[in-house]
Specification:
The protein is an alpha/beta fold and 359 residues long. It has two domains: 13-123 and 326-356, 3-Layer(aba) Sandwich (Rossmann fold); 125-321, Rossmann fold (3-Layer(aba) Sandwich). The protein is built from 13 helices and 14 strands. It has helices at 93-105, 107-112, 123-129, 131-137, 157-167, 184-191, 215-222, 227-240, 247-256, 264-278, 284-295, 314-321, 348-356; strands at 2-6, 23-26, 29-32, 40-44, 47-54, 84-90, 115-117, 147-152, 172-179, 193-195, 242-244, 257-261, 301-306, 342-344. A five-stranded parallel beta sheet has the order 1-13-8-9-12. A hairpin with a 2-residue loop joins strand 4 and strand 5. Helix 3 (123-129) crosses helix 5, helix 10 packs across helix 11 (284-295) and helix 10 (264-278) crosses helix 12 (314-321). The longest helix has 15 residues, at 264-278. The protein is globular, with a radius of gyration of 20 Å.
Length: 359
């Protein structure tokens, strides 16, 4: 049987960054980052900076902002503008993540600005996410059957939290790493090839990632906490764009993890199927998690972690079921708000300078 365990904002803790809004271009749609899940953020002292990707072929002077097919909003009015800064990077999620990691690696800079992270780069975030799995487990009436979780993921953070829950004693059978067509994690788990390819823009933008930051944590576990072997593996990924998992380690992975991949067409079909069968509208990410159980033959209590409100992805919902996914009434006011952000090139020195000028 299948259960849907809902959690807000794709598991990314937006409350900790006060629902900061940033623009993000997805095919046929412009979404702000207060509504879109694919976000990377850091806290600098008592000030907030958000790093979010924009694409170089987009001109924001001419980008159409229409409430009919976009969510042009800004939630930064919850905070004083003197402590809140939005940075849009010309690049993708991986570029944003690399910038943040580069700034952390610069000890002089990171110490000077008292830098810390609130996304899954921070271990505390992973620990907090492990609560989902315990909570879901205790919602299941029949715990005599094996319990499996399907987790839509791109950065391997939330599903790694499930792995930790299992290590802490939660009787999880399998964790399914559910990916979209940016399937580096599926390829790694199914055949041992962690090889970087070009990121494709999809209707599930939070999963449009090639370098899954938290996969490093699993590599560390596979090498029994050997930091030197982990560093070597990560250097191979950085320099060669590839890391081959040997059969012994692949067998260890498959003890806990299975994986699946869904095309754009399959995602839309899953949204339609679930709506017609249950009257529930899934966003594209949640559909990938749910649809994984159609691709992986596994019995027991199967729980799919759902991620986001479907109104974040109006074009996808319209294409799948010809329905307009309405924004919740409590958030409807943001359609009239103005977004405030600075667009900066994919250059760590420019980003550092931008930050220093504002703290």
């Amino acid at each position: 049987m299948q259960h849907l365990s809902y959690r807000p904002c794709s598991g990314w803790n937006f409350s900790s960054i006060c629902l900061i809004s940033m623009p993000f271009f997805t095919p046929g749609n412009l979404l702000p980052f207060s509504i879109c899940s694919s976000i990377y953020s850091v806290i600098l002292s008592n000030k907030y900076f958000v790093f979010a990707p924009v694409f170089t072929d987009i001109s924001y002077d001419f980008m159409p902002f229409s409430s009919a097919n976009s969510l042009n909003s800004s939630n930064e009015t919850f905070l004083s503008k003197s402590i809140l800064f939005n940075i849009a990077i010309n690049g993708n999620f991986d570029d944003c993540q690399n910038l943040v990691k580069s700034m952390f690696a610069d000890k002089i800079f990171s110490n000077e600005i008292k830098m810390s992270g609130v996304n899954s780069i921070n271990w505390a975030r992973i620990i907090a996410q492990s609560v989902y799995y315990f909570y879901s487990y205790f919602l299941v009436d029949n715990n005599n059957q094996p319990i499996n979780f399907s987790v839509p993921t791109g950065n391997f953070g939330d599903v790694y939290a499930g792995y930790l829950a299992k290590k802490m004693g939660l009787p999880i059978n399998k964790l399914i790493v559910a990916t979209n067509q940016n399937d580096i994690l599926h390829r790694a788990i199914s055949n041992g090839s962690y090889e970087v390819e070009k990121v494709a823009e999809t209707i599930s933008p939070s999963m449009d990632i090639q370098i899954a930051s938290n996969f490093e944590r699993l590599i560390y576990d596979l090498h029994n906490g050997d930091d030197l072997q982990t560093i070597k593996a990560m250097n191979d990924i950085k320099k060669k764009g590839k890391y081959i998992i040997n059969q012994e380690n692949l067998d260890k992975i498959n003890t806990n993890f299975l994986s699946s991949k869904m095309s754009e067409e399959e995602v839309l079909k899953t949204i339609k199927k679930v709506y017609e069968k249950f009257g529930v509208v899934l966003d594209p990410h949640s559909a990938i998690g749910y649809g994984a159980f159609d691709k992986v033959d596994i019995s027991g209590n199967n729980i799919a972690l759902a991620t986001a409100h479907p109104s974040k992805f109006p074009d996808a919902i319209k294409n799948a079921i010809n329905l307009k996914a309405e924004l919740p009434k409590k958030l409807a006011y943001i359609l009239d708000e103005k977004e405030i952000y600075d667009i900066i090139g994919n250059n760590v020195d420019k980003v550092k300078q931008h930050i220093k000028e504002r703290i």
